[in-house]
């Protein structure tokens, strides 16, 4: 394990930098019991990511910050260093697979802007050489605790939001809060589905069956994307390996929730999600042939999964990023996500300027429309 120790100006923090995959996993496991995380920074998710997609993304990097005086954990940052067109970039362990990126917050994490700036200074001093740093899709809070990175002066709101439903009361109270017409549609769809002989909602808990359901989910998603004339990228070998390992290792311990609507041997719809504590996040969904469109199987598999998990004590249901009408009809509230970009060398300055220019243009609808009209189609 490569370790670098750095202190901020007030000698509050020690920063340990780990660069090898095996040591990184061991370091994470040693401190994880102290940390608050999203489902995308759990041991299961990160261990799977670094063993599959992470190897294609770049060099692993974990920054562990410890309080210099008490020795308590401040935060852990699961990162990757990747090289693109000769530019070294530091990013979260993501590669497009994690809906949210956030540090694992320890008990000594700062909660105010000044503390966040002192922490950030110590971390920058310990970071490996790179040209550009980009952190995207960061939530303001992690399990109810403020994310210090979003308090930094150059942190800004992203273009994407999280979409969350919190159900503190009964399931019946939640359904009554929905629009009456929509509530009646859900009831009718469930009755239509159940009329088919062999129709059932199931949670998949067997590894072998999980692999079968995932393969069908992948096929249905790929077909749907291709019908729209879009490119499908989740079948890249490293991505496919990630999801297969995630399900194989995670459905037995409950960190991965795979549910499906089935009719005999047919998979009518399937939903893949990850869970941590009382939080459940949906990450992939599919619905099959047009034959089942009269019962809205995508909405059904979501609501049936939510009802099942609510009965088991889950209270936060996260529909992840993406603004879709069905999410709004299910009562989500939107929460901003944040991004943080920093040039770490002169070579990174042009990239920072480009990002700021893009932001300037997108904030001005008329200018954005003009640029889109005249920009080359492949730009």
Secondary structure topology:
Blueprint: E1 13-18, H1 21-31, H2 43-51, H3 53-57, E2 59-67, E3 73-84, E4 87-92, E5 104-105, H4 113-126, E6 132-139, E7 141-142, E8 145-146, E9 156-166, H5 171-177, H6 180-194, E10 199-204, H7 207-227, H8 237-250, E11 256-263, E12 266-276, E13 279-287, H9 297-311, E14 316-318, H10 325-329, E15 333-343, H11 349-362, H12 365-374
Parallel strand pairs: 4-6, 13-14
Antiparallel strand pairs: 1-2, 2-3, 3-4, 3-5, 6-15, 7-8, 9-14, 9-15, 10-11, 11-12, 12-13
Helix pairs in contact: 1-2, 2-8, 7-8
Rounded to the nearest angstrom, the radius of gyration is 22 Å
Helix/strand/pairing category: alpha+beta
Oligomer: single chain
The CATH topology assignment of the largest domain is Aminopeptidase
Task: Characterize the biggest β-sheet.
Answer: 13 strands, mixed
Total helical elements: 12
Poorly predicted runs are: 5-9
Helix content: 25-40%
* CATH architecture descriptor name of the largest domain: 3-Layer(aba) Sandwich
Pattern of helices and strands: EHHHEEEEHEEEEHHEHHEEEHEHEHH
Domain module tally: 2
- Compute the average pLDDT: 90
The shape is: globular
Tally the beta strands: 15
Q: What gap, in angstroms, lies between the N and C termini?
A: 42 Å
Percent of residues in β-strands: 25-35%
CATH level 1 name of the largest domain:
Alpha Beta
What can you tell me about this protein's structure?
The protein folds into two domains: 13-159 and 336-344, Aminopeptidase, CATH 3.40.630; 169-314, Aminopeptidase, CATH 3.40.630.30. It contains twelve helices and 15 strands. The radius of gyration is 22 Å and the shape is globular. With 379 residues, it is an alpha+beta fold. Strands 1, 2, 3, 4, 5, 6, 9, 10, 11, 12, 13, 14 and 15 form a 13-stranded mixed sheet that branches. A two-stranded antiparallel ribbon has the order 7-8. Helix 2 packs antiparallel against helix 8 (237-250) and helix 7 packs antiparallel against helix 8.
């Amino acid at each position: 394990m490569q370790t670098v120790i750095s202190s901020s100006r007030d000698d509050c923090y020690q920063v340990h930098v780990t660069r090898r995959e095996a040591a990184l996993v061991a370091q994470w496991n040693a401190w994880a019991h102290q940390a608050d995380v999203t489902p995308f920074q759990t041991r299961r998710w990160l261990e799977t990511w670094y063993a599959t997609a992470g190897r294609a993304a770049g060099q692993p990097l974990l920054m562990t910050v410890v309080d210099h005086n008490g020795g308590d954990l401040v935060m852990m940052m699961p990162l990757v260093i990747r090289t693109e067109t000769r530019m070294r970039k530091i990013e979260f362990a993501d590669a497009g697979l994690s809906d949210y990126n956030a540090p694992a917050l320890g008990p000594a994490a700062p909660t105010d802007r000044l503390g966040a700036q002192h922490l950030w200074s110590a971390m920058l001093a310990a970071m490996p050489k790179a040209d550009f740093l980009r952190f995207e899709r960061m939530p303001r809070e992690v399990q109810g605790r403020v994310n210090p990175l979003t308090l930094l002066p150059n942190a800004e709101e992203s273009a994407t939001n999280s979409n969350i439903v919190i159900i503190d009361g009964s399931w019946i109270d939640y359904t009554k809060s929905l629009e009456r017409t929509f509530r009646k549609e859900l009831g009718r769809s469930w009755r239509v589905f159940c009329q088919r002989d062999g129709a059932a909602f199931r949670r998949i808990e067997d590894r072998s069956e999980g692999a079968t359901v995932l393969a069908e989910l992948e096929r249905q998603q790929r077909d749907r994307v291709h019908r729209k004339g879009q490119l499908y990228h989740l079948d890249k070998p490293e991505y496919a390996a990630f999801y297969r390992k995630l399900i194989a290792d995670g459905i037995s311990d409950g960190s991965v929730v795979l549910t499906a609507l089935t009719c005999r041997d047919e998979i009518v719809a399937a939903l893949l999600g990850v869970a941590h504590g009382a939080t459940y996040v949906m990450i992939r969904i599919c619905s099959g042939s047009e034959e089942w469109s009269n019962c809205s199987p995508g909405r059904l598999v979501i609501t049936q999964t939510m009802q099942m998990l609510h009965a088991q004590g889950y209270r936060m249901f996260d529909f992840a990023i993406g603004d879709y009408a069905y999410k709004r009809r299910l009562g989500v509230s939107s929460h901003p996500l944040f991004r943080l970009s920093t040039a770490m060398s002169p070579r990174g300055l042009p990239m920072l300027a480009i990002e700021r220019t893009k932001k300037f243009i997108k904030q001005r609808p008329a200018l954005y429309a003009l640029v889109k009209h005249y920009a080359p189609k492949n730009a």
